[in-house]
Amino acid sequence: MKALIIGATGATGKDLVEVLLNDPDYSQVVTFVRRVSGRQHPKLLEVVTDFDKLEQVQGQVSGDVWFSCLGTTLKAAGSKENQWKIDYDIPMKFAAIAKRNGVPCAVLLSAYGASTSSSVFYSKMKGQLEEDIASLAFARYLIFRPGLLLRKYTDRMGERISAAVLKLLNSVGLLRRFRPLPTRTLAEQLAKAPKVLTGDKQVVELDGIFKL
């Protein structure tokens, strides 16, 4: 299979690239990035992309499955408008191009609690993206909704504290279904999903990600 990835430079995206490059079921991995990483691998193709002008790379959007791992925090984005642009506008535009170019399978990294009816901005935004990509009617559409992610070398204090609290609660049998998810484990399950999940649309919630 030929895989396409947006969000390949984030924590989960980096792990996903590594997993796909080492998976014999994937013959080529195409990443759409703002700048080249310098990494060399016979299966890897990095497409330098201006995400404000995705039409310039639409000829490269061709393959068997595309993964969206794109996302940011409100703090990093600086405003809700910028976060919407990164988390919604870019994946949505890429999805439309992928659909138009005949890519049959879409795998979206969303978030726990994503819903258009949510009163939380982030959750509502993710829910809107899920629904709008669904309206494009890919042959297969797989949505992952993880909870707290364990990123290697994270500098987010709140994330480290939350992970520590959850681990403590998990150790005494509490909130097991909300246990933190290492990005490497998530990447492995994302790569596995197109090979094992059938049907035109599936939503994989946090607990289901561990069991995939």
What features would you describe in this structure?
With 212 residues, the chain is of the alpha/beta class. It has a single domain, classed as NAD(P)-binding Rossmann-like Domain (Rossmann fold). The chain contains seven helices and nine strands; from the N terminus they run E-H-E-E-E-H-H-E-H-E-E-H-E-H-E-H. The strands form two sheets. It has a seven-stranded parallel sheet, sandwiched between helices. Helix 5 links the parallel strand 7 and strand 8. About 7% of the residues have low confidence.
> Which fold name fills CATH's third level, the topology?
Rossmann fold
Outline: globular
CATH superfamily: NAD(P)-binding Rossmann-like Domain
Mean pLDDT: 89
Tell me the Rg in angstroms. Answer: 17 Å
Sheet with most strands: 7 strands, parallel
Strand content: 15-25%
The computed structural class is alpha/beta
CATH architecture: 3-Layer(aba) Sandwich
Helix content: 40-55%
Count up the helices. Answer: 7
First and last CA, distance: 20 Å
Strand order of the largest sheet: 3-2-1-4-5-6-9
Number of strands: 9
Give the domain tally.
1
Pick out the low-confidence regions. 159-172
Give the CATH level 1 class: Alpha Beta
Question: H/E series, N to C?
Answer: EHEEEHHEHEEHEHEH
What attributes characterize this protein structure?
212 residues; Rossmann fold; 40% helix; globular
Overview in brief:
By secondary structure, this protein is of the alpha/beta class. It has helices at 11-21, 74-77, 80-100, 121-134, 157-171, 183-196, 206-211; strands at residues 2-6, 28-33, 44-48, 65-68, 105-109, 140-145, 149-150, 181-182, 201-205.
